[in-house]
Amino acid sequence: MSANRNDEELYQALEWRLRTILPAMYQDCYDEVQPVSMGSAGLKYDWDGKVAWDQIWGSFCDLAMAGGPPHKGTLLEPASLAEIEAAQERYLAVVEEICRGVRMVTEFSAERSEHPGWVRVDCGSRVAAEWLVRAIVMENVSARWEGTAINLPAGPGYRIEKEIKNVITSIAKTSHYWLDHTWSSQKREIGDLFLTMAKEHPLIQPASARHPLMADDWLVLRGKVGESVFKVTGLSISAHTYADWLGISCSGVSAAIWMMRALVVNNVLSRREGTTLFLPINPELDPGGEIVVKALLKVHRLAISGDARQDAGRS
Questions:
Q1: Residue 146: beta bridge partners?
Q2: Helical residues (DSSP H) of the chain, grouped into ranges
Q3: Are 314 and 251 in contact, with CB atoms under 8 Å apart?
Q4: Parallel, antiparallel or unpaired: strands 118-122 and 149-153
């Protein structure tokens, strides 16, 4: 089998995976979706002065998963343990408000996580949690998957009209598409796909920099992954700095979107900020970075292998 034919088969298999995880409304038209925001909805309040989270949104922007604009331009991260300990009362108030908002805009329960800096949201099933963590991370809001639950970020410095709203909007938006625009039969197909991907390798998500591993582990691994990425793809490393994400400079927004989505259906969480594609760093699940680098090499090769890729990934 020729390399071109093999790549075409891999590309079609990847496209099938992407169509499988997208809500039905996007499956045949996601190439037409543009990353253009509808603008931010204003806050509304109820009779006792609390934000009426369930009355804010009449519609949502397209999913970043489908090629729409991410909710945030840069990543919203959880607070550090030092920040939380310095303002414990305020932190608890933020967590309580995020939990209240999540309960109002979804059918999920929410509570303070045992992990400082996070709110635990019970999604009711493993499939829902796995889908939502992918969708939310692509909206540039930190999220971590744990079984049937996801963790969303929190911090004492979060403001009601900014970071708190960002977290609640991200779960409102993504759960809307999951609950209202993804049918039961498709959810079963998505569950089967996730099981197939898990047999290939576990979902690679960023290891929280709050994990007790030495900070040097992240620096060493980020450097190693960056060197490997440049060596095998020629893509340069972005100056963006996150402890558990490595930024890769792409030739344009369309290239970043295509490779982001391709990585996600290869069981590697990914997101983008403008033309920068971000890869997860996880010293536990991917201690040498081989899984992430292999996945990037595969999608980058597919992205530049013909007109069907619309020149995405060219550098």
A1: 149
A2: 3-21, 81-86, 88-105, 126-138, 165-181, 184-200, 215-233, 253-264, 290-303
A3: yes
A4: antiparallel
- Report the distance separating Cα 9 and Cα 15, nearest Å: 10
The pLDDT value recorded for residue 30 is 57
Task: Print burial letters for 206-215: b (CB count within 10 Å at least 16), e (below 16).
Answer: bbbbbbeeee
User: What is the spatial distance between Cα 172 and Cα 55, in angstroms, rounded to a whole number?
Assistant: 11
Sequence-ordered list of residues with C-beta below 8 angstroms from that of 94, at least 6 positions apart, any chain: 154, 155, 156, 158, 164
Domains of the chain from N-terminus onward: 40-199 (3.90.1150.10), 215-309 (3.90.1150.10)
In this structure, are residues 263 and 303 in contact, taking their beta carbons and an 8 Å threshold?
no
Task: Give the separation between CA 239 and CA 215, rounded to whole angstroms.
Answer: 19
pLDDT in tens, 100-146: 999 999 989 999 999 999 999 999 999 999 999 999 999 999 999 99
Q: 247: helix, coil or strand?
A: strand
The pLDDT of residue 307 is 41
